[in-house]
Write a structure and sequence with these properties.
This protein has one domain: Methylamine Dehydrogenase, Chain H. Helices cover 0% and strands 53% of the residues. The strands form six sheets. Strands 1, 2, 3, 24 and 25 form a five-stranded mixed β-sheet that branches. A four-stranded antiparallel β-sheet has the order 4-5-6-7, with no helix packed on it. It is mainly beta. A hairpin with a 7-residue loop joins strand 22 and strand 23.
């Protein structure tokens, strides 16, 4: 079992006065964010809360998609101060990670090695369409088109074709020496949080045969990763939970641009415009960036 099983530090972005949404073990909270990721300070304003035990969240348009234990919940967050549940469907796993592409969503289990596929074309009535069983346990998932990239912890990265949700198939895999805890895909590259091996950047233009393009050794075990604007935000589990900001504009030579200590670890994050949606299994904390 990797350190991902013990605690997870989240990918992040933001600055001093920011809009930020966190999920506690008691629900979803929305707080206020702005300014550069390189500025210093703290100023978080709580503006809304809803729900039960949550570990991840994704946002598309006016909807937020969250896991409440084993329940896949869709919320209308057009008014951040009053998120409204609009639909949901029970899954067979305690939801650990969620990803969206078009009218399809994928979710992985908190402990179970299972990928679940949900049709979200009608937010008021999402439907479970299928699942794919994986060995061991699962971490994060990233859905890009019809391919689901699954962090399969000790069993590496798995790439699953979900174009036929009722009968998904394995397209490719990449094994590592550590535990693949999370993955983010952009521009034909998969950014992998590989525990104590840090960040790995894989070329996945041929999903059947991923190849290593570059890597970066983080301080501690890489748990979560989010990529935006040529920067990879990597949360690492250490004695002092930390957020690495890594320039990945040249994938072969990643460069550290910033390192920030976090007051507590987090479990999920998504950036949408001026809002950053974050989850934690514990409580709302303030980020000092």
């Amino acid at each position: 079992m990797g350190s991902e099983e013990r605690r997870r530090t989240e990918r992040g972005a933001g600055g001093t006065a920011f809009r930020l949404l966190r999920l506690f073990c008691t629900g979803l909270s929305i707080c206020a964010l702005s300014q550069s990721v390189f500025s210093q300070g703290q100023n978080v304003e709580l503006v809304g809360q809803v729900g039960g035990a949550c570990y991840d969240v994704r946002v598309a348009g006016k909807y937020a998609y969250i896991g409440e234990g084993g329940y896949f919940r869709i919320l209308d967050v057009s008014n951040p101060s009053s998120p409204l549940p609009v639909g949901g469907v029970p899954l067979s796993v305690v939801i650990r990670s969620i990803s969206l592409s078009g009218n399809q969503a994928c979710a992985t289990g908190q402990w179970e090695g299972k990928l679940e596929i949900v049709d979200v074309a009608n937010p008021s009535s999402p439907r479970l369409r299928g699942h794919y069983q994986l060995p061991g346990s699962t971490g994060g998932v990233f859905l890009s088109g019809s391919l689901a990239y699954v962090a399969n912890t000790r069993d590496g990265l798995k790439i699953v074709d979900v174009s036929n949700p009722s009968s998904p198939t394995l397209r490719g895999s990449y094994g590592t020496s550590e535990s693949v805890n999370d993955v983010f895909v952009s521009g034909g590259l998969a950014y992998v949080a590989d525990d104590y091996s840090g960040l790995k950047i894989l070329d996945v233009t041929n999903p059947s045969s991923p190849t290593l393009r570059g890597s970066f050794n983080t301080q501690g075990a890489a748990q979560r990763v989010f990529v935006s604007g040529g920067l990879a935000f990597v949360g690492a589990f250490t004695s002092n939970d930390s957020l690495h900001i890594i320039d990945v504009s040249n994938p072969a030579k990643p460069v550290l641009r910033g390192l920030h200590q976090l007051a507590h670890y987090a479990t999920g994050l998504f950036v949408s415009g001026s809002l950053v949606y974050v989850c934690t299994g514990d409580y709302l904390e303030r980020l000092k960036i």
